[in-house]
Specification:
The chain is an alpha/beta fold. It contains 9 helices and 14 strands. Helix 1 runs antiparallel to helix 2.
Length: about 350
């Protein structure tokens, strides 16, 4: 404002080719250019104990992710929607594994009252590769995001955890015995671009399933079909890998999170939102530095994917619906009898 008043005064008294006016204008330009850089490097104020967990290195949470997660949690607290002392966040721009090859930690459990912060691994949506559109994701970094039903992609934005549902997934062999896998699914309720979370069956669960191989006879089994058969297969653990659009965790992290929110919902904020993806994509195409424009994306993954892409539901849903309608009818799956 000081420089603005100065230039107004100078404009009233000095000719356009005045050296003094040129100096004032150059100072204003310098200040206006510096402001975005300063804003991009400023770290929002967080509690002192939490500040040590803020950053972009492994095990830490990026400032913008934490800032939005806290804002969502505080808003839902004030609305009375949640009373849980903890909240959740995820940074889907981070890689699936770290330099040591271990699962990358990009999901956060934050309990400010207890001054507790924990970062764990989590999966993101794998997408699809269709004839009209390729919106598939690699194993290490997510490039594509969408809120279209059937896209199998992650959608960033605000969520509130809801009820849980436990279902039987089949039998597998463990320690020489047949063991059942019962997987609990935590439903999410969203708003805005994530409002169709239930329509998409988006939620969180353990990163494991049973890949069916055969069926065995057990008429007394409560999971047997009408002919008395139960599915059996190989247990697949895809911790930190890709999912069908849901948020997935390791067995231990899943147990911790489910225990935390069972009957006591809380907020979950997933980064990036559609606006973030579009802004980063535009900056990359124009050759602009993300730091200078106040934007964020994990540097390693941005280098790997080059440019992220957001597929809005209104654009992608018709393509998915057309693909589904083109699929030939398949006979019901009939597993062979286990030997």
């Amino acid at each position: 404002m000081f420089f603005l008043r100065m230039v107004q005064q100078e404009n009233a008294t000095l000719p356009l080719n005045s050296p003094r006016l040129a100096l004032v204008v150059s100072l204003i330009v310098a200040v206006s250019v510096a402001r975005p850089i300063q804003a991009a490097t400023e770290t929002p104020k967080f509690p002192a104990w939490l500040q040590s967990h803020v950053g972009t290195s492994e095990g830490k949470i990026a400032p913008v992710v934490l800032q939005r997660a806290r804002a969502l949690y505080q808003r839902k607290l004030s609305e009375g929607s949640v009373t849980n002392p903890c909240y959740l966040a995820m940074d889907a721009t981070r890689p699936s594994s770290g330099r040591d090859g271990k699962p990358g930690r990009r999901f956060y459990i934050i309990c400010e009252t207890a001054k507790s912060f924990r970062a764990v691994s989590s999966g993101y949506g794998n997408g699809r590769k269709l004839r009209r559109a390729d919106f598939s994701n690699g194993r290490q970094c997510a490039k594509n995001f969408s809120n279209a039903e059937g896209s199998k992609l992650t959608m960033g934005g605000p969520y509130v955890t809801a009820e849980t549902r436990t279902s039987f997934k089949g039998y597998f062999r463990q320690s020489g015995k047949r063991e059942p896998l019962h997987r609990t699914f935590l439903l999410f309720d969203g708003e805005g671009e994530t409002a169709n979370a239930r329509e998409r069956a988006i939620g969180g669960h353990q990163a494991a399933f049973v890949k069916w191989q055969c069926r065995f006879k057990d008429q007394e089994n409560p999971h047997a079909d009408k002919d008395g058969y139960v599915p059996y297969g190989r247990l697949v653990n895809y911790t930190a890998g890709r999912s069908n659009g849901c948020t997935t965790w390791s067995e231990s992290a899943s147990e911790e999170i489910l225990a935390l929110v069972e009957g006591n919902p809380t907020t979950l904020y997933i980064y990036p939102e559609g606006r973030d993806i579009d802004a980063v994509a535009t900056a990359v195409k124009r050759g602009k530095s993300l730091a200078r424009t106040g934007l964020y994306w994990n540097a390693a993954c941005l280098k790997a994917i080059r440019t992220p892409k957001f597929w809005p539901k209104k654009n992608l849903q018709p393509i998915i619906n057309e693909w589904r309608q083109s699929l030939p009818k398949q006979p019901p799956l009939e597993l062979p009898i286990c030997k």
